[in-house]
């Protein structure tokens, strides 16, 4: 275990970095990637390599790798493909142990590119150097302020790792991590996977104490058997949520011309991923939503679902969605209904969903949550319209900014307190509570800001009943898998 | 046709309104609904009815309906159920032709409520008065500044109508209309449908020149045969997008206790809705996204889809999603590929998706769109990563507010110009172009604001390839229906 961690140390926790292809010319990737690395606040030494410039972006440059006064851990490489094998050779001689090749134009274009890639990998492996890429977006490790990447997206440290064979999908996911407030532990755009394959990253992240959930976009495998053997071990430690792209004929064809990956048959992947405990997402939203859903929820023991809602329509939508995603909208026992009778207004209509209708008696929602989590016939809860958890005052666009800000602060504080209480109950009973709501009394970007601020506190809040049911169904399936493998949860 | 329009005139275009149950007590619905009516800027006279107060919310009140000095068109009724039949009687005697009963506690609670509802409907029908509700959220007609409703949501006038048997879903959808910038023509929360049924509203909206698309949430029908006969005529004039809630056993049970509606079997609904040309949505997002998708797009002649993308991963996701939703990711002809060869960088990989990769040569995206729309082998286009349409400069959070505002203005302007050009080509060729992208260079709520500002100009922009493909598939299916019924598009 320590092996993979120490092997990846020069990549994700480099003491200093050589930047090969560093540039002052705005618009050039050698300029942008270096700018991002500096902007991210990297605290070690950066050694720009540039044969012509003495100073690059304010830092003393070196004309050759051999001239650097120490041995950097990592080389970031942003030079044209024909020059890369030579640069790797130089890195090896210098004793550099990790390389990140961002440049494109290798195996994915064929011909000479293919040859340069082979050459580069041979030289690196002979010299015990690991390589990320080529043809990738970069890697990111916020806890180490490490941002050698093409896009200018700077997430906070978090517990979600992103592994993607597509650079733009990696960015999409990282941006979601920023917007949601959750942050990430690691982002890896794996590109052509000339040396390191995605299974190497999964293996590393499986043992990474910072990472609690892995979300990934995968088009195909260099070594399918090794991939599944690896991932099987990882999913016993933490959830792996994955989009397997290229799973239709049209998609597979698109993937071939994108990363030249061997998509394999969709059917065999479905079978293998089930056996390996992979949580499969349908699309980007589902992938990210499920990732943050796993973060702070207990894994449910079964699929018996209670629904508590502040509105009838939402309850019906949640019941439909639950049913469609394989959840059992359970019949509540007489005892549970009697307990709810004591809490809810006289006109409530006993059943599941538990519809609190428009009227919300002080504290009724929190008490109902407690009853539903204590009920032996439930495994989990969908909670809709959490405005019922507290008194939310209306806000209007024309209010002074100061007043809106105070309201935002107060609302987030109240919500976080309520969520904290729910989380405690939820973990005590080992029953996840998935919440979805809109915030009708939010103006401008206030809704987004409330969601983000809850994210920074570790609370995932969704917008629609459908999303809540879908995320919950993924948690249920993962629980079922763990139970089948381990005999218990 | 003129019939339904004149029948609904007192409801949606009232010259003056009696407000029965008007209140000064904050927190009471009689206060909130009146407040919303006033806040919305209604320009006719409002006559608050209150036996005790002389002035309600600054307006002279009347102790009885008969005392009003003219005959209002509409009565908004927010008094307890037992008093409603008497109030209706008074309205009829006064000559009022439409009533909106917001109060709950009628048929949905059974017993006396059931009786009050029957009584009220009998009195209204005898007096030639139409009734909305009871147990509803209100109605909204922004072009007439008419907002007698429970929630404080004020959309701009637009071309989408919302019909919902659930009040909270109606609000969800109306809020989306506000946030998206599209606005609405009409919102109807139909409640218990004691008198007017949803088919009456569909019939009215089918002939309403303001309404171009109808989106709706339906749990069940009072008269299924009449419903489908009506809707069949409407879908020939404009698209009707619908969530049929309660389509699973769990959902049906939830719906029964919500609106006591007869959900009917799911299978028979699917068949009937297909024959009636209804576009069925899976969830709230799908419903709204499809609604705005229909607004300004030509209906495609077939399902042969081209995909143009600024990133490989997004292209693969779009190809997968297209395939899953029944679109044909068409093989581009040699002629089309040759035309693209002249536009795109040398390293592009010929095929569909057309992957423009990271490099974007000036104007290449717009020229490629033109080629793909002119190609006889395509019916429609998915466009991903429209940042390629113009030069978008990075923005950072720490920039001065003024600079960010200018950037926002400039970006929206450029995007709107590009979208305008695409719309012209799209309509000329009768091929829809559905766009999805994230805006990586947007900070704070800028992304949301750009999407909203595009919405006010009538352009729908989505975020993910999956959404684009799904919306497009709904357009394709509707085109297929129209073709089957009309023989041509």
CATH architecture of the largest domain in chain A: 3-Layer(aba) Sandwich
Main beta sheet of chain A, described?
6 strands, mixed
- Beta content of chain A comes to 15-25%
If you compute it from the alpha carbons, what radius of gyration of chain A comes out, rounded to the nearest whole angstrom?
Answer: 25 Å
Parts with pLDDT < 50 across at least 5 consecutive residues of chain A: none
Which chain pair has the greatest contact? A-B, 74 and 74 residues
Tell me the strand order in the biggest sheet of chain A.
8-10-9-11-12-13
Q: How many helical stretches of chain A?
A: 16
Number of domains of chain A: 3
List the main descriptive attributes of the protein structure presented here:
homodimer; 489 residues; alpha/beta; Rossmann fold; 3 domains; 6-stranded mixed β-sheet; 19 strands
Element layout with pairings:
Two copies of one chain form a homodimer.
Chain A: H1 2-12, E1 16-20, H2 29-39, E2 45-49, E3 55-56, E4 59-60, E5 74-77, H3 84-94, E6 98-101, H4 112-126, E7 130-132, E8 139-140, E9 157-164, H5 167-180, E10 184-189, H6 198-207, E11 213-218, H7 224-237, E12 240-244, H8 249-259, H9 266-275, E13 279-280, H10 284-295, E14 304-309, H11 312-324, E15 328-329, H12 334-341, E16 354-355, H13 364-374, E17 380-384, H14 401-429, E18 433-436, H15 446-456, E19 461-462, H16 465-486
Parallel strand pairs in A: 1-2, 1-5, 5-6, 6-7, 9-10, 9-11, 11-12, 12-13, 14-15, 14-16, 14-17, 17-18, 18-19
Antiparallel strand pairs in A: 3-4, 8-10
């Amino acid at each position: 275990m320590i092996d993979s961690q120490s092997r990846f140390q020069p990549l994700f926790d480099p003491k200093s970095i050589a930047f090969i292809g560093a540039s002052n010319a705005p618009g050039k990737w050698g300029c942008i990637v270096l700018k991002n690395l500096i902007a991210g606040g990297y605290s070690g030494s950066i050694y720009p390599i540039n044969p012509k410039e003495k100073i690059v972006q304010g830092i003393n440059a070196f004309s050759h790798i051999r001239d650097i006064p120490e041995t950097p851990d990592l080389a970031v490489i942003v030079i044209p493909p024909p020059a890369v094998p030579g640069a790797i050779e130089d890195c090896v001689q210098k004793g550099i142990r990790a390389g990140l090749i961002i440049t494109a134009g290798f195996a994915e274009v064929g011909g000479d590119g293919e040859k340069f890639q082979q050459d580069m990998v041979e030289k690196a492996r002979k010299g015990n150097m690991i390589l990320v890429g080529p043809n990738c977006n970069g890697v990111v490790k916020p806890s180490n302020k490490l941002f050698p990447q093409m896009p200018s997206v700077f997430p906070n440290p978090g517990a979600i790792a992103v592994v993607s064979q597509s650079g733009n999908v990696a960015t999409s996911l990282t941006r979601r991590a920023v917007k949601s407030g959750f942050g990430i532990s690691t982002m890896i755009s794996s590109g052509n996977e000339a040396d390191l394959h995605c299974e190497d990253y999964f293996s590393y992240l499986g043992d990474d104490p910072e990472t609690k959930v892995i979300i990934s976009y995968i088009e195909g495998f260099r070594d399918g058997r090794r991939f599944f053997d690896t991932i099987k071990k990882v999913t016993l430690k933490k959830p792996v949520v994955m989009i397997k792209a290229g799973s239709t004929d049209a998609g597979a064809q698109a993937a071939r011309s994108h990363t030249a990956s061997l998509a394999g048959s969709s059917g065999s992947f479905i079978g293998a991923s089930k056996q390996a405990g992979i949580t499969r997402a349908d699309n980007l939203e589902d992938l990210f939503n499920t990732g943050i859903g796993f973060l702070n929820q207990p894994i449910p023991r079964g699929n018996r679902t209670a629904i508590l809602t502040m509105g009838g329509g939402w309850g019906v939508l949640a019941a439909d969605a639950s049913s469609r995603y394989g959840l059992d909208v359970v019949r509540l026992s007489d005892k549970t209904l009697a307990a709810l009778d004591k809490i809810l207004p006289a006109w409530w209509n006993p059943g599941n969903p538990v519809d609190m209708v428009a009227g919300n008696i002080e504290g009724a929602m929190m008490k109902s949550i407690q009853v539903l989590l204590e009920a032996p016939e439930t495994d989990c809860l969908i909670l809709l319209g959490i405005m019922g958890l507290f008194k939310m005052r209306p806000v209007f666009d024309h209010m002074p900014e100061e007043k809106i800000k105070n309201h935002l602060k107060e609302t987030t504080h109240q919500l976080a307190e309520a969520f904290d209480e729910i989380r405690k109950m939820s973990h005590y009973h080992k029953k996840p509570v998935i919440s979805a709501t809109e915030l009708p009394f939010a103006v401008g970007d206030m809704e987004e800001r409330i969601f983000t601020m809850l994210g920074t506190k570790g609370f995932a809040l969704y917008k629609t009943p459908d999303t809540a049911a879908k995320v919950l169904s993924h948690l249920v399936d993962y629980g079922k898998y763990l139970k089948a493998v381990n005999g218990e949860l």
